[in-house]
Each structure stands twice: as structure tokens, then as C-alpha cells.
# Entry
Amino acid sequence: MDTFAIPSSVETIDPRRWETFAPYFADLQERPLTSTNLRQWLTDWSDLTRLLYEAASLIYIEKSLDTADEEKEQAFLDLIDNVFPEAQVAAQALKERLLAFDADEAALQDMSLVLRNMRNEAELFREENVPLFTEVSKLENEYDKITGGLQAIWDGEEKNLSQLAFFLNDKDRDVRQKAWQTIADLWLSQREPLNKLYGQMLKVRQQIAQNAGLPDYRAYAFREKGRFDYTPEDCLTFHEAIETAVVPALRRILERKRTRLGYGHLRPWDWVPEKGVLVDDSHGDPLRPYQGQDALIQHTLNIFNQLDPQLSRYFATMAEDGLLDLDTRAGKALGGYCSSLPLRNRPYIFMNGVGSHDDVQTMLHEAGHAFHVFETAELPLVWQTDPPMEFCEVASMSMELLASPYLSAQHGGFTPHLRRPALALNI
# Structure
């Protein structure tokens, strides 16, 4: 046959069984490929990929929403054990078939970057690495279970790592120290199992690189992530530039902060370097921009109403369709992310909000990713909607900056006065 009908919804299939997807892959592999049907063949492959990606995204999202739910974990394990290995092998065969086909350049004129990426992926693929990818995914799942379950008693209540981190912004230095020490103790309590996980990951990833004929996993990761425009050596040059220009400036900033606070020395609980945040030494009450997911959604929507009506409609669609899970809770995986549901052309935002200003910036950041998903929805092939990670961050970091003039309450935002842009240290 020249085409097939992909199921229009993940809810109508069993995504945990390879047999769900196998007939479609087999059809694409066996169907005669000609210049006449090439575009339809690509469209069918793209639609199948959308179905598989959306099924996988939903299973991953459900697993990360509750790392203690054994049924959700089993669905994820079934996916990576039963479906992903077979799908990787089948996709490799289709890539090889496409790359070997002598196509009319006009038929693939919008595919130059996609073909470059596919050629790189096909050259990097080794079938012996497929079970190793599964092993890495299982180790990553164990990490989520361990860290998502970390909790400590704080003022008589159990709080997870995200909730404890809220107190690192407290103006009371003793509270910050207590929060920092509590968080550190939780991480140290899992030092042995986490070190074991990292050691296992290192060994497996080194083997993946060796199987692919590369000297180390860094070299493999640069190829695997499609980093064609810069090298590890370029990164090291950039590191040296930071050491030369940025580190001295940061030391001056820290010294001014220490002097204003009247401390003899700054301690780890006086700043959060990975977030670029220094303790607030302003007068007045601590900043508490919002309470709860509904307030975060409403204020964020107000900001986008001011910024751009199309962005506002995108964000409202996510809220209406239940594509936002923003509050932290026990068992939820750490961090935040924006996932893509490519079958329905919708994004999904996951985060661990606790009511801090950093949560506001995370919300805006992930919304930038989400808007990128909406804006690429009209591209015909799924691979055209998948930019490299570095360019994805252009959308997210830009959104933080574009929204910064509207953060004040006078614009419907969060704070009684304007805050500095997210990329600046809070000094």
C-alpha cells in the first residue's frame, strides 16, 4: 500500500507493546520507494514517529509526576524494555533506506538539516548499544526515585527538597543555614546509592562510546547531540574566558554583598550559585510572589496578555487542556521541564513550584519552550520541529527577558515593584 492511517490518539493504543507499532514500521520498510511516493512515505514515517514520541512522553510525564507509583514506573519500564529497543533498530533501517535512496533534490529541499542529522545518527548507531541505552534509562529512573523521595521534617511537617530550598531565600541567616544543612544532610544520606548509580552510568556510557569507535563519552555526546558548530576545545576556550573575565567580577560582587550584609565571610547558605541568586538584603518583607498553582497560572497569563496576545492564547490553551503541573509534592521528580506531545502538537510543562521568585522565572523559561512547540506545529515533518538543545534555550531564556518588564503587580504580574531580569545576579 502507498499509505496507512496512524491512530489519531494515544488513548486508542497500547504503547507498552512493540506489536502496537511493528506493523507500521514493517510497512515503511517493505513499501516500494519511488520519487513519486517519497513525500508520502516521509509523511507516514513522521506521523508514526509522532505517535511513538507522544506515547513515550505521556508515560514519562506520568512516571515523573509520582516516582513512588509502581504502576506508572512499570509502564515506563515496559516502554524502555519492550518498545524502545525495537523502535531504535527499526528507525535505523528506515534512515539507511532513505539515505541510500537517490532522491530528486527538489523533493527534499526542506530536508537538508534533517538529512544531515539523520546521516550523523545513522553513522553513530551500533546495535550493541541498544541494550546499553535501556540500562542508562533504568539508572536514570532509579535516580528519580531516590531523589524524588527525599524528605525531612521542618517545623513539624514533612518537606521535600524543593520545599526546603524555598527557605534558602529567607532573610534570616539562621533559617537559611538550617535549610542548607537539612538539604545537604538529605543528599549525604543517599551518598552511597547515588555514587553507585553514577559509577554504573559512567561505565555504561564509556562502553557506548567505545562501541561507536569514539575515544570517550564526551566525544560521543557531542556527536549524539548534533553539535556540528562547536567543539569541546571551543568549550574549554569559553571556560578560560569565564575564568578571566567573569570570575573576578563575581568576586567583586560577592565582596560588596558581604560588606552590605556585615558578615565576616559569605557562607554557602548566603547565595545559590547555580541559580545566580544572592541573599536579599533589601528592607521590607521577603518576596512571596504567589501561593499555589492557580495563582501562578493567572499571574503568568496576565503577563502574557501584556506582552503578546498570541502567547497569551497559547498559555491559556495549556491551562484549559490540563497541560500544566506546577506545584511540588511528595514523590514528584525533581526539577522542571517542557515536554512535547507531537501527535496533538501541544507542549506540557512540569515543575516544582513552592511560591518563590525563582519559580516565576522557571515558569517563564518553560513557557518559552512551550511557545516554541506551538510555533513549530505547522511544520510538515516531525524532525523539522526538533532543534538542537542550544537553540531551544534561545526561546526559553529570551522569554525570561522579554517578560521581565511585566513582572510588577501594576502589569498584573507578581511583585509590588519591578525585579531585575532573570539573567542578572540579584544584588
